[in-house]
Amino acid sequence: MHLNASSMPQAVRTAARQGLLQGPTAGLANGYVQANLAILPEVLAADFLKFCLVNPKPCPLIAVAEYPGQYEMLVGGHTLDIRRDAPRYNLFRDGRLVESVNDLSPYWRADMVSFLLGCSFSFEDALQQAGIELRHQSEQKNVPMYNTNLRLTPVGPFQGQMVVSMRPMLAADAIRAIQICSRFPTVHGAPVHLGDPALIGIRDIHQPDYGDAVTIRAGELPVFWACGVTPQVAIRHARPDLAFSHSPGCMLVTDLTNASLAVL
Fold first, then answer.
1. How far apart are CA 159 and CA 39, in angstroms?
2. Are 98 and 232 in contact (CB under 8 A)?
3. How much is the pTM?
4. Which helix (H) or strand (E) holds 23?
């Protein structure tokens, strides 16, 4: 099955469910919302919901399961199987990442509550339509992501520092990107920083903590957006006995349109 920018969301999910797609979803199903995942035991769900509400930049809520144990969710008019429709998942035990799998079915519990969070891949379609190059896509890599010193507002056991994704751009493109992304607050909105990485605690821009390093050309600025990997940092602090997330870059592609999330 060949997937590309014009692929429909259902085709991407089918490939993931069949194990044919186990890598990053950047550049697939352009025009449709891609979601980060955080799946936690019911005992922690209320605190995590509050955590998202007070940290909306890295944790913009799109949908929440209606009841514990629900793994089929109606999003954008289509039913998604949260356990199998993303290409790759991370499995945490006591807050530690212990395994990466392509199917959560064998590990699913009746008390798990699923959260779908906005992803920066959604606004990338708008950036490309404006003629802005996305280096990780042109180099066929996963977007680079970094831990930072930007502190999150804690709620209960959830706390930590923000994770950011980075895209290098010329200054003029960075300004345009800020204008464009401000229209999409539910998929991280405008960048949180641009320029000197050290100011937000990144020691080496060429050594991302997640994803792949990309080329930064002369005259370009690194531009940083809040990233949906941030909940995985919060999960490590909360140390639930069991939790799941998407694997960084491997998103759940929904049938919601990016245009439906624009606010201006």
1. 16
2. no
3. 0.91
4. none
Average of pLDDT values for 192-213?
A: 97
Q: How confident is the model at residue 196 (pLDDT cuts 50, 70, 90)?
A: very high
Domain spanning 122-226, CATH architecture: 2-Layer Sandwich (3.30)
**CATH of region 9-119+239-261:** 3.40.1640.10
Q: Is 128 exposed, middle or buried (0-12, 13-18, 19+ CB in 10 A)?
A: middle
Residue 151 CB-density burial (10 A; 0-12 exposed, 13-18 middle, 19+ buried): exposed
The domain ranges of the chain are: 9-119+239-261, 122-226
pLDDT for 116-171, tens place per residue?
999 888 888 889 989 999 999 999 998 999 999 999 999 999 999 999 999 999 99
